[in-house]
Structures are given as structure tokens and as C-alpha cells.
Specification:
Helix content is 45%, strand content 18%. With 292 residues, it is of the alpha+beta class. It has a six-stranded antiparallel β-sheet, covered by helices on one side. A three-stranded antiparallel β-sheet has the order 6-5-8, covered by helices on one side. Residues 187-286 form the HTH araC/xylS-type domain. Keywords: DNA-binding, Transcription, Transcription regulation. InterPro entries: Homeodomain-like_sf (IPR009057), HTH_AraC (IPR018060), HTH_AraC-typ_CS (IPR018062), RmlC-like_jellyroll (IPR014710), RmlC_Cupin_sf (IPR011051). It comes from Niastella caeni.
Amino acid sequence: MKVVQFTIPVSQEHSIMVQEDKLPHFYNHLHRHNETQITWIIKGEGTLIAGTCMQRFQSGDIYILGANQPHLFKSDPVYFEKNSQKDIHALTLFVDLHGPFGRIMDLPEMSNVKKFMEVTRKGLQVPASHQHDIMKKMMLIKEARNGIRLAFFIQLLQTLCRIKQYKSLSSTHTESSITESEGLRMNDIYQYTMAHYTENITLKQIADVAHLTPQAFCRYFKKHTLKTYVAFLNEVRINEACKKIVAENFDSLAAVAYQSGFNNAVTFNRVFKKITGQPPKKFLTEYMQKVN
């Protein structure tokens, strides 16, 4: 497994590629491509890895991923179960800023959009308050053809660059900081961690997955993610814990702690608060207030 360098099949007739996916699950490998992409998760849940970011994604989310930013939409395990009835639905727009559309970006009227596209290189999540408007504009682009599609896409970019409350997906731009061989290692690390997070993963075990010594692995992982492996593993575990709480799939918060890979509730509570900003009991209370 590796960071797959995709070639998005943009025809000579279009500078904007529209792709609608209706599949059993999202593409299951870390990958990147030359195009900037805007993805609307119409249906589906899982974990998004983009640059140094790892977080839950769910239906309704909209993400802007920068050109050559390694990313992975990892569907939840239930999507891979035998006879699973789950499926995903997503609408994605691709644009190569070094292709024909790049010449449009040089027009003076597009100066604000050009600056905005520089920001997207780290990856962005559209705020929930703007999702409905962006969804409608993406549907217009999907249905349009030729120059009308192009006009709608420019309108979408003008709207996106006026939004102020984006969540940045990565603390650094990774276009040139990860090679093919390094991407292979990163994908193997991510896949192993997400498959075994409930277990006691030792430093030697994960270093063996990356074919590195423990010391070299620590340096390597910190270099490419700007965090320690333990911090990343805890993010995976808390991510899964939040999913169980939201799905109301638990007997007690202590049970959630053990099912998420923690050996005791005290450590779980401390790490949960550090990552989410609040203890699990408060997280549960606030969630129940929202849904009731």
C-alpha cells in the first residue's frame, strides 16, 4: 500500500471534472493528485486523514483538499462487513490550477480567489452554517454543461473565498514533504493503527510495520505529522469513542474507554478532555441535549 498518485480523467472538453460516487465504501488508500478537490459527503461516515489532520467525517460535510495533499476517507469498519447494507454517496469537483483553468485565475477579477486557493493547499472544512448554500451550488455545477458549468464554478469559488470560519485540516502544506516511499510507510501506519487501535500497540510493533527502528520511527512520524505516534493513536481512540457515544452504542462510559483501547477510565477521561476540550460525561450530556 502507498500514497497513490492519481490522474483524474479530465476530458479535453472540460476544465472542471465532476465525479459522483455511489459505492459500498470510500476508496481505501492514502492518495493524492494534482487537482484541488471539493468533496461533499452526501452519505457516509468514517475517518478523514488529510495532511496532519485526522478527524471524523459524516453526511453533510464538505471538504476542500489542496493539490497533491495526501488524503484518505476511511469508511467505518461496518462498511466492510460481509453482507453490509451500508453504502456511500459523494459529489466531488476537481480542478487543476496548472491546467486551462489556471489562466482564468490570472484575471484581475479573480485575485481574491487566487489568494484563497493558496490557503486551500492545507485543506479546509466548510462550516456547517454554509453547507446548504455550497451544496446547492455544487448541484448546479453537476447539472450544467460547457460554459454554464464554468460560470457556476467561478461563482462557487467566489462564494467560498468569502467564508471566514473555515477549519484548517492541516498545520502544514505537504505537497513536497512526502515522497512515494514515505507515503507507502504512512499509509501502512494509518491502516494498521485504525485496524488495531483497541489493542496495546507497542512502539516496536508499529515501527516494524514501517520497517524502521523504534528510534527512527519516532523521528520519521513526528517529521511528517508534527505529532508523536502516541498522540495520533490517542486521537484515533477518542475519535472512535466519540462515534460510540453519538451512536448511543455503549453500556457505560467506562465500557467506551475499554472498547476504544484505553486500559482505565482515568486515562480515558484525561485524554478525552485534552483532545475534545471537555470530559466525556459533559460531551455526552451536551449531545443528548442537542438531539432531544
